[in-house]
Design brief:
Keywords: Magnesium, Manganese, Metal-binding, NAD, Oxidoreductase
Enzyme class: oxidoreductase
Structural class: alpha/beta
Family: Belongs to the isocitrate and isopropylmalate dehydrogenases family.
Bound molecules: adenosine-5'-triphosphate, magnesium ion
Protein name: D-malate dehydrogenase (decarboxylating)
Helix content: 40-55%
Number of helices: 11
Order of helices and strands: EHEHHEHEEEEHEHEHEHEEHHH
Radius of gyration: 21 Å
Distance between the termini: 21 Å
Pfam families: Iso_dh
Length: 362
């Protein structure tokens, strides 16, 4: 009997702080998953592109770093950022160039309340089944274009411009992805978020393209919100939302709010996708390096496992992806949780519990 083993080549960038702890945990769980199910395995290559190394050697990624990443099937990212490096330096040295160079123009952020976890919202506004959202974030342009500049620096007349760039091509492709996502979900409902009352160019183009693309998806129920009112609706009427599409900045903020409403920022995953599959996509929990708890072994690894599950699905191992999420939820349902979720376990305790659960499931 011959058995074929699919090898998925994964580039790992643990980065800083708890990024290192949770990437270790994710690799451990992924190895348990492939060893238990069989038929596929992961070949991990780790890159030490971190703020610590930046402070020692002056760079995050080597000059051919982006070219190196292109050889992989997917990228797993921990977190980047450290107190003594300005955040805009770490972001623009690593994560933003990767997203741009690898055409990862979609950022997908699912949010729901996992079994055994609780929303800070009271049950009268949010029963556990009421919050089940898919946030689609534009990941390549908008407010994070990096364009702009500063003049008359260090004088009372300093002027800084931060230019948002919105293109029809960029908006159309994110809208199509959002409509396809909405169509694939049971409620077939898409809410589009802008600030087109106060921002009269880019945001108005967003609205316009949204209604144009909507004509191709008549089976999807559509709905438009201003971002300020959207924050209120997320808190007071969570059940009224399903799939959400928003710009780079707006969706960044709304997805942190969504994560908090679902119980903890420590559980939320994100996928940076190149839907054309010409380049590897990148998977990372939405939380940061959390310097306040780094090195203590108490970080919640659930966001890392959920991100890993999305990666496993993207490389084509559906059954393994479902199994991993089932294992994670069985563990949280039993109350095996870190402190941010009101439990008393540490990173290792949750990781081992998820591994044992995987072995029991398959
Ligand atoms: P970044 O700028 O990289 O987004 P940040 O400082 O804004 O980082 P986080 O690093 O995500 O934000 O941390 C915000 C808060 O949430 C911190 O108090 C941190 O301890 C907590 N936190 C974040 N991730 C986790 C996790 N996985 N487990 C437990 N607590 C977490
Ligand atoms: Mg943050």
């Amino acid at each position: 009997v011959h058995s074929v083993t699919n090898v998925h080549r994964i580039a790992c960038i643990p980065g800083d702080g708890i990024g290192v702890d949770i990437t270790d945990a994710a690799i451990h769980v992924l190895n348990t998953l492939s060893a238990t199910i069989g038929g596929f395995e992961f070949a991990f290559t780790t890159f030490d592109w971190s703020s610590k190394n930046y402070l020692e050697r002056g760079w995050y990624m080597p000059p051919d770093g982006l070219e190196q990443l292109k050889k992989f099937d997917a990228i797993y990212f921990g977190a980047v950022g450290w107190p003594n490096v300005p955040d805009h330096i770490s972001l623009w040295s690593l994560i933003l160039p990767i997203r741009k160079a690898l055409n990862q123009y979609v950022n997908v952020r699912p949010t729901r309340i996992l079994q055994g976890t609780k929303s800070p919202l009271s049950e009268s506004v949010c029963k556990p089944s009421d919050l089940d959202w898919m946030i689609i974030r534009e990941n390549s342009e908008g407010e994070y274009s990096g364009q702009g500049g500063t003049s008359h620096e260090d004088s009372p007349y300093t002027v800084a411009t931060e230019v948002s760039i919105f293109t029809r091509v960029g908006i159309e492709r994110i809208m199509r992805f959002a409509f396809e996502t909405a169509r694939s979900r049971p409620r077939k409902k898409l809410t589009m978020v802008t600030k087109s009352n106060a921002q009269r160019h880019g945001m108005v183009l967003w609205d316009k393209v949204f209604y144009e693309v909507a004509k191709e998806y008549e089976d999807v129920e559509i709905d438009k919100m201003l971002v300020d009112a959207m924050t209120v609706r997320m808190v007071l009427q969570p059940k009224s939302l399903d799939t959400i599409v928003a710009t780079n900045l707006h969706a960044d903020i709304l997805s942190d709010l969504a994560a908090a409403l679902s119980g903890s920022i420590g559980i939320a995953p994100s996928s940076n996708l190149d839907p054309t599959r010409a380049n590897p996509s990148m998977f990372e929990p939405i939380h940061g390096s959390a310097p306040d708890i780094a090195g203590k072994g108490i970080a919640n690894p659930v966001g890392a496992f959920w991100s890993a599950a999305e990666m496993v699905r993207w490389v084509g191992e559906e059954k393994a992806a479902d199994g991993l999420m089932k294992a994670v939820e069985n563990v949280t349902a039993r109350g095996v949780k870190t402190r941010d979720l009101g439990g008393s376990e540490d990173t290792k305790g949750v990781t081992e519990a998820v591994c044992r659960e995987i072995e029991d499931l398959f």
